[in-house]
Amino acid sequence: MIVPMKVAVLKETFANERRVALIPANIPHLAKAGLEVVIESGAGMSAGFLDEHYTEKGATIAAREELFAAEIIAQVRSYGANQEAGRDDLGRLREGQIVIGMCDPLGAPQAAHDVAATGAASFALELIPRITRAQSMDVLSSMATIAGYRAVLLAAVELPKMFPMLMTAAGTLTAARVFVIGAGVAGLQAIATARRLGGIVHAYDVRPACREQVESLGGKFVELELEAGESEDKGGYAKAMGEEFYRKQRELMASVVAESDVVVTTAAIPGKQSPLLITADAVEGMMPGSVIVDLATKRGGNCELSQADSRVVEHGIVLLGPTNLPAEVPNHASQMFSNNVTKFLLNLVKDGNVVLNLDDEIIRDTLVTQGGEVVHSRLRDLLGLEPLDQLAADEASEPASAVDEPNASASESEANDHPEGSD
Ligand code: NAD
């Protein structure tokens, strides 16, 4: 009799994290691929999925300690993205086990080192390559979609005005003016949401390709007399532009910021601090009651006065710096995340077995630890570890070694130009 491999879904332990890694609807798809799902009791509760919803779809329920017997652990936030509460689970991981989740690989590379020491093979979902085949697994896009939507709702609640233009017997109300800085996945969803609420939306991005996307959503692309040049890398991400560019950008955007009731900033550069685009002076130039939602505070912020996970009021302007908006929309965020994880698992498991096929770009780019080593070349670089092929060469020249032979293919993996664990 073939015993199916088990996928364990843990209850998230990060503060205020309400998402769950797998939802009931995906369980039958995994069963078809030979995977049995075990859920920690209550894991889906805060996202609206009860234990019985899981059991109806064929999952079993177990206590947390028992779940670590499973071959695969699926989490929204694995250790790197949950270092305080997640530390308890580190000792429960074991050699050969597979851990799949977001782990903030580039923001917290040391955590990968700790996971490697357990012998588990871990995958960072933030490092999914942005290729067509991997679109259905792309958690950064899914979660950015939710964040962009939620950011506008937060602003709408804070704003002492309504969004739509209204002509009433009691007079005419002008529409709220919304400025979205950074028109990537989160920015485009912010534009769409602000438009649906009836706002007048302007947007700017350094990547020229964004203009058409902004306009297709009913936004107006802001023209700045800036020479952005080659602002997009081959992965579709923005390149860092240099301080002189940002200085000019801040200056030119200040008047648009001043005329806006709401500013939503989403500007990010993969693996780097986010550019500072709104100075304290520019904030002071806004009308009291205006709102700034800075979605980049986790990596420095786009606004000088915003603070991570805080509501700050300066000169009468409300500044919000939320870092985990998808957790505030846990049902749909979990649905999207679960679909992403399911597609990832179906790509990883062949005939009921995990196949670490390093010729597959998706597997190679996301594999962070294996066989006791951090195997991702970019993380090794960040940790000051020598490249694995170099290590292998050094060991080959030594008379004897207790270290497992490192995986040379993984070391050949191209440095992955992807953002660190935004969620
Ligand atoms: P992101 O979160 O890294 O950045 C958000 C936005 O900030 C980007 O649009 C970027 O251009 C912008 N930005 C950076 N510096 C700026 C500045 N100084 N001023 C204004 N804007 C600035 O990126 P993201 O939203 O995750 O993705 C960006 C793009 O990647 C997408 O719009 C899309 O074109 C591409 N993408 C491709 C795939 C795929 O092919 N599978 C998947 C997802 C995204």
What secondary-structure arrangement, pairings included, does this model have?
Layout (H helix, E strand, L loop, with lengths): L4 E5 L17 H6 L2 E6 L10 H6 L3 E3 L1 H4 L4 E6 L9 H4 L7 E5 L6 H10 L2 E4 L14 H20 L7 E3 L2 E3 L3 E5 L3 H12 L3 E5 L5 H7 L3 E2 L21 H16 L3 E4 L14 H5 L6 E4 L16 E4 L2 E4 L9 H19 E2 L2 E2 L6 H6 E4 L2 E2 L2 H6 L5 H9 L11 H5 L11
Parallel strand pairs: 1-2, 1-4, 2-3, 4-5, 5-6, 9-10, 9-12, 10-11, 12-13, 13-15
Antiparallel strand pairs: 6-18, 7-8, 14-15, 16-17, 18-19
Helix pairs in contact: 6-7, 6-11
The structure holds nicotinamide-adenine-dinucleotide.
Nicotinamide-adenine-dinucleotide binds next to helix 6 and helix 7.
Structure in words:
The protein contains 15 helices and 19 strands. The protein has 423 residues and is α/β, with parallel strands linked by helices. Helix 6 packs parallel to helix 7 and helix 6 runs antiparallel to helix 11. The radius of gyration is 23 Å and the shape is globular. It binds nicotinamide-adenine-dinucleotide. The site of nicotinamide-adenine-dinucleotide has 30 residues, from helix 6 and helix 7. Nicotinamide-adenine-dinucleotide (NAD) binds next to helix 6 and helix 7.
